[in-house]
Amino acid sequence: MTDRKATAGAMSQLLTIMARLRDPQGGCPWDLEQDFATIAPYTIEEAYEVAEAIAQQDFDGLKDELGDLLLQVVFHARMAEEAGHFAFDDVAQSISDKMVRRHPHVFATSEAETARQVVGSWEAIKAAERAEKANGKPASHLDGVALALPALLRAAKLQKRAAAVGFDWPDAKAVLEKVDEELCEVKAEISMLCEDPTAAARAEEEIGDLLFVLANLARHVSVDPEVALRKANAKFERRFHAIEAALTESGQAMEDCDLETLEGHWQAAKRAER
């Protein structure tokens, strides 16, 4: 069972350390130079390192990475407190209130017996919150999908929002047809590259459309496109490393090999994984 006093003590210690680091009298010069914009990239990086530790089932690493991510929250909260905006306690209270508000089946009288019902209720409450934040102004169903999200993840979220109000293809088959259409448009622009320099910009647009539709296809078959691409990246790295190892063992340098030789090693790496 969690020792609440120990938890409170550890949290208090971290807040005290952060305040000391940001103290103009004797604090850390690097920490004192930072602001929200300079720290934001570290916050994003730490979130990805948490995800990586989870993917690797590295729970000792996960403990450390979660600590690093918590430090980011404390850092931002400390800067906000210094500027008179809010403090860490306000952050904790805000998320506590939100969790209670979005779980009426636990903290109020509503009922939800399945995870699907919970998700439906959660999305409905979020929609009501967005409408309230709009303060009478026209609200969009796409409001609140953060611009800073990775593009593929943001595409999936935008499409999920649109689908929630009926703007969606009926099934995965229909999306596949759109994938074929977008792929043909990509091919058409690429075929023009040698003749028309402006085709490069159009090719970029068409490739973007293709990626966007592929993200929608993933959603239709209950696949997280961001996770799928991460796994594809990991698979590529694994097989590429296998090629490097095979070439090192045979005393060859990759840059001295022709593509046919490299492809042969790639296929060998694939077979080794089966």
Question: What do you see in this structure?
Answer:
- The chain has helices at residues 4-21, 29-33, 36-55, 59-82, 88-101, 104-107, 115-134, 151-164, 172-191, 199-220, 225-249, 259-272.
- With 274 residues, it is an all-alpha fold.
- The radius of gyration is 25 Å and the shape is globular.
- It starts with a helix and ends with a helix.
Features:
mainly alpha, 274 residues
What topology does this entry show?
Layout lengths: L3 H18 L7 H5 L2 H20 L3 H24 L5 H14 L2 H4 L7 H20 L16 H14 L7 H20 L7 H22 L4 H25 L9 H14 L2
Helix pairs in contact: 1-4, 3-4, 8-10, 9-10, 11-12
Compute the number of strand runs.
0
SSE string, helices as H and strands as E = HHHHHHHHHHHH
- The helix fraction, in percent, is over 70%
Largest sheet: none
Round the mean pLDDT to the nearest integer and report it: 91
Strand content: under 5%
Structural class: mainly alpha
Shape: globular
- What ranges have pLDDT less than 50 throughout 5 or more consecutive residues? none
Return Rg in Å: 25 Å
Question: CA-to-CA gap between the ends?
Answer: 43 Å
- Counting DSSP H or I runs of 4 or more residues, the number of helices is 12
Briefly say what this structure is.
With 274 residues, the chain is mainly alpha-helical. The protein is built from twelve helices and no strands.
